[in-house]
Amino acid sequence: MNITQNSIDDLNAVLTVTIEKDDYKEKVEKALNNYRKNATIKGFRKGQVPMSFVKKQFEKSIIFDEVNQLLQTAINDHIQKEKISILGNPLPKAQDDMDWDADTLNFEFELGLAPDFKVDLSKIKADTYSIEVTDEEVQKYIDNFAKRFGTMKTLEKVEEGANVKVLMKELDAEKNEVEGSEKESYLFVDELAKPKKFIGKKVGDVIVVKSKEISEDAVNLEQILNWDAEKAADFDGQLQFEILEITAMEPSAVDQSLFDKVYGEGAVSSEEEFRQKIKDEAEKMYSRETDKQMMNEVVEELIKETKFDLPTDFLSRWLHFSNEKIESVEDAAEQLKKEENGLRYQLIESKVAEAYDLKVEFADVEAAMRNIIKEQLAMYGQSNMPEEDLERIVQGSLQNQQEFQRMADQVFADKMMQTFKENAKLKEKKVTFDAFVKLMEEKQKNHQHDHDHDHDHAHDHAH
User: Fold this and answer.
1) Helix (H) or strand (E) holding 302
2) How would you classify the pairing of strands 238-250 and 151-154?
3) Closest Cα to residue 322, out of 13, 112, 156?
4) Where is the Trigger factor ribosome-binding bacterial domain (predicted)?
5) Domains in the chain and their CATH numbers?
6) Which of 187, 305, 361, 443 is the most exposed place for a label (fewest CB within 10 A)?
């Protein structure tokens, strides 16, 4: 067997594989003998089928299978040995007149070669944001924590923030109770469209309102009154509520007891530390969003600034050949256009990983898994789990192939992001969270406009 490679240009090559009969003769004979021994064919006793009959029936398909196996092994070995970076898979050239009885068989395969290019992160410019958490935002967090860990108290009359237990009845046009409609329910005053109808009322008071005074939105009405969607959308009668009980959440005092409930015993020992921890946690949470934005911008710039050609003709033909759902090479070319940026980034990402020696070791995945499990346990108030129990959970998660791969991908993404942070030219801007959200919405709008504009140009060009 012999294999040679001829370059057509920098992005395309042809592999010629020559296979001699001696390369597969022995395996074919062995397979034929096995068929002869084991074949159950009408008119012949088992093991007594004439070899001429077995050859006539099976030899061509056995040769075909053995040759295909040889081809796959030879091509894969050649690509690995020569360290050829290819796109897609080798594409066999059509050969309609193959003589399978010949002593020498020749096969040709087209290769799409990965382009050779360099990535210079120092030339990539992008904006990144640092979200400042204001004292007002910290206070909102504190108020929410105080409410969440507060105690329920009974009120004499309805006020803002009250939770009202009611006996609800539906009324007909004559204001008579609709039979079977009576049920106990809870109304949260701050959710109501017309809370003033309830504020100031006491236990035993009866209030009659239209459904729109509870909520003008059918979906909200459905949730507030626990109705089905159809009833919430169609109901236009009146509702009667008799107040049974009025309660409200008494916020917790901002003291050591609250600090311990939120962050675990002894983790925070003063209001100043509590505020700082809330600020740090919020900024950490926001940093995930700003990191995502930074990655998107850097990736977009990398795709735009890193110039290289792709073997698009080859890839279109390979896509058509390998995907039976794609009906023509023209359709494949269209599909390739849609996926081109993704392919370009895959190639760029590989170059960055190679240039900056980004590797994911088992120890990296193990450490990341341990950290994330610790965070999850802390969320459920189990921050003091014994080390051996924690280790058991970590090792169990690492045994799960899917979990391991997901974490390995995350570790690689984090390493890539850190590489961008350290090497790209990032211009940091300090903003509030609201300003950041507004900026992102604006960028998204402009991005969509540019995309539509490009599409219009492509459409004009096509005509």
Assistant:
1) helix 271-305
2) antiparallel
3) 112
4) 1-144
5) 2-113 (3.30.70.1050), 151-250 (3.10.50.30), 271-462 (no CATH)
6) 361
